[in-house]
Amino acid sequence: MSAFSAIGSGEEREVDQNEFTPSIEPQPTWCPGCGDFGVLKALKGALAELEKDPEEVLVVTGIGCSGKLNSYLDSYGFHTIHGRSLPIARAAKLANPELEVIAAGGDGDGYGIGGNHFMHTARENHDITYIVFDNEVFGLTKGQTSPTSPMGHKSKTQPKGSAKNPIRPLSLSLTSGSSFVARTAAVNPNQAKDIIKEAVTHDGFSHIDFLTQCPTWNKDAKQYVPYTDIQQSDDHDVDLGDRRSASEMMHEAEDALYEGEVLTGRFYKDENRHAYHEEKQERGDFPSEPLAERYFEDGDWERSYDYIDRHA
Ligand SMILES: Cc1ncc(C[n+]2csc(CCOP(=O)(O)OP(=O)(O)O)c2C)c(N)n1
Ligand code: SF4
């Protein structure tokens, strides 16, 4: 028996996306019109279409409005501290490679305070999906300038306008070593769902820069404008397996975003590189049974919600 089958049923079956809606907090408290709703919807749809049982999935989040994602998704969840979703997600995946691990957080969480973890998780190509809610501000703490705020962006922390260039999340991801890099937008739920499905299925570190509008603190952001899907457009051509081609397309998309043109789609995909745990396995530097197995005993498992219900 594997560690996974000690958690879930392990049976293949049709999954309805409503199975991912929790009974305790089914209605998110995000502001009306927030792009975070789009991530939740796309994620539920993607997981259901991939026939993932909620108990096969672990969602690890950082701190921010985006960090509330796992409160609104009925799967295993770990709401960590600011910028630390990736180390927790990596540890979980290494302890139980059969678990579908998704990490998520904001641009402040992932590209700012957690930037070092982002770089090294990409470099090591851990087999997890990382969704960054990119709304170009710190939403939860009331709209401060973030690593993706454009030069000149005015906020409480930069009332005269930011004097900093924004980071280039796609390029940073590529040069750090991600083996799947994509950008999608909350205004485009079908593309978002398809990209999440590809990211989850991809064997290696999949990074999605997910443009999410924050109507409360960042009305001027460009995430609202109509997007172009580079895979559907005759004006853009990217060879997904070619780093130079991907890099050029990323630079174009990163520049265009702040000029009001939203270019989304898949930018890079390396299907030949081994994920970190596979690389370790090949070197004989990984236990033959999942580490998690050592801490599991048959039949002892109860979901945390059952405990909460009991004490309600
Ligand atoms: C170590 C630490 N520093 C600062 C904070 C305060 N804080 C909470 S959320 C947040 C930023 C949130 O912005 P972002 O990550 O972009 O997520 P969003 O709320 O926009 O989804 C900050 C600075 C904290 N919780 N912990
Ligand atoms: S503050 Fe912005 S990011 Fe946070 S819930 Fe409201 S709209 Fe969404």
From TrEMBL:
Entry keyword Oxidoreductase: yes
Cofactor: [4Fe-4S] cluster
Residues annotated as domain Thiamine pyrophosphate enzyme TPP-binding: 63-210
A single MF term (Gene Ontology): thiamine pyrophosphate binding
CDD domains: TPP_OGFOR
Biological process annotations from GO: cellular respiration; organic acid metabolic process; sulfur compound biosynthetic process
Keywords: Oxidoreductase
Superkingdom, natural source: Archaea
Segments for region (Disordered): 1-27, 142-169
Keyword Nucleotidyltransferase in annotation: no
SUPFAM superfamilies assigned to the protein according to its UniProt record, in alphabetical order: Thiamin diphosphate-binding fold (THDP-binding) (SSF52518)
PANTHER family the record matches: 2-OXOGLUTARATE OXIDOREDUCTASE SUBUNIT KORB (PTHR48084:SF4), 2-OXOGLUTARATE OXIDOREDUCTASE SUBUNIT KORB-RELATED (PTHR48084)
Protein name, per record: 2-ketoglutarate ferredoxin oxidoreductase subunit beta
Species lineage: Archaea, Methanobacteriati, Methanobacteriota, Stenosarchaea group, Halobacteria
